[in-house]
Amino acid sequence: MRVTRVHVDLPLATGARLALPEEAAAYLARVLRLQPGDACVLFNGDGNDYEARLLTVGKRGVEVEVGPATAVDRESPLRVTLLQGVARGEKMDWILQKATELGVAAILPVSSDRSEVRLDQARARKRLAHWQGIVASACGQCGRARVPLVEAPTRLEDAIARLPAGPRYLLDPGAAESIASLAAPGEHCVLAVGPEGGWSPRDRGLLVDAGFTGVRMGPRILRTETAGIAMIAALQARYGDLA
User: Fold this and answer.
1) Rounded-to-10 torsion of CA 151, 152, 157, 161
2) What percent of the chain clears pLDDT 90, i.e. is strictly above it?
3) Where are the domains of the chain?
4) What distance, in Å, lies between the first and last C-alpha atoms of the chain?
5) Which CATH class is domain 5-71?
6) What CATH class is the domain 79-239?
7) I need a labelling partner for 41 at 20 to 30 A (CA). Which of 76, 119, 143, 165 fits?
């Protein structure tokens, strides 16, 4: 029987007894209705899964005893950083979830000229916490024991200034390059995907000046919630671990 994996933002060590954070406790107790003595697996992003057993389940929370740790290596040899124009509501959640399942290493949400979502500082903090929860939950489902980095939403030009070295790809239906014609990216690459309205000429200029190469994904124009996921899957199949 499959054992539930739950992310906790806590140090974990074999033999420790600890009270689970509210969200994890509510999931195990109220959603799954686990009882004292039931097993689960905890992970905190350090690369290990920790066996655990529930000790108490009550209104005051859930206490567990942490068991042995098992190293987990489900990270792709191709580390993809997704530079994603912020999309509306559930579209962005879907992008984060599926990108995590496909092995993306980091996600940088950006606002650009044609972004339909505008976040003030308070809303940006709340949205970041929500996005981090989406990614952690996706790791719990897909078996990853390292949680991809999700940065706070920022302006495109500021995100570009902090990008890691490596090949940089810009999805462009009119580009001459395709997946088949790309040189192998090595261990790391960056993929830029625009928001619902696409990149403006100014945005595109910023990306090209920063070394992004246009890449087409077939003859059809894909929506923002499809484009990045399709490209990540194609890159992982060709250069990563989906082969």
Assistant:
1) -40
2) 71
3) 5-71, 79-239
4) 28
5) mainly beta
6) alpha beta
7) 76
